[in-house]
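Consider a concrete sample entry:
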Amino acid sequence: MQAVVYDNTFAGLLTAIFEVYEHKLANVNIMPANQRQDSLFNETFTVDTDDAKAARVLKGLKERLSADGFKAFCNTFLSEETGMENKMLHYAQYAFSVANADKDYSHPAVLYIKNTAKKVHREKHRMEAFVRFQQTGDGLYYAIVDPDFNVLPLIERHFKKRYADQRWLIYDSRRKYGLYYNLDNTTIVTVDFNDAGGNTKDIATVLDDKEVLYQQLWQNYFASTNIKARKNMKLHIRHMPKRYWKYLTEKQLM
């Protein structure tokens, strides 16, 4: 078994796949540097990320896969699941060996990529639906999130289009980075936020006075329209899982 170690980036993983072909490596185990486990019985091969090599792999996959199959491959990386690298390698190897590989769900790697990408896509839509912005005293709208998967790159377009006329920041407290939109461009930023993850009590000092009033009005409206006689908590949780409630203004007083 040969261990191929890369730098935790998508370009690094693509470079690792390139090196597997370049050096004709067999029986390999691709792993990110932060999960590296050296063994006396394994030969370790460390990959230096090469954008040109990564681009060649990406171009080849784009030519061999359908649009959906290519998107699924890319989105699988955002799942950050342990062992995904080897599934993605096997998927790429299969794609380079046969036509229409991404349609063959009898292949374990193809089925894994399809199901994993579906989970990432579902989390993307939930973030787009459940994220609630709060306003700071200087007019910045912010939201602190903690998604299961690294979906910030996938939700950028939605929020940029929907909130094009205001400055906003969406910060992923688990991965310690955020997206900041300044009315023109979106940039990746790192901010030293409290790990409490969006608890307005912890950051009340920076909230705009009107924002506190708006939150109270929204909570009162939600309470008044929530008819107890028609309450179906099981159905409610199915559509809005409890782990997302911490993002919702209307849930803060429940």
In short: Residues 108-130 form the longest helix (23 residues). The chain has eight helices and eight strands. The helical segments are 10-22, 51-64, 67-77, 84-97, 108-130, 152-162, 209-225, 233-239.
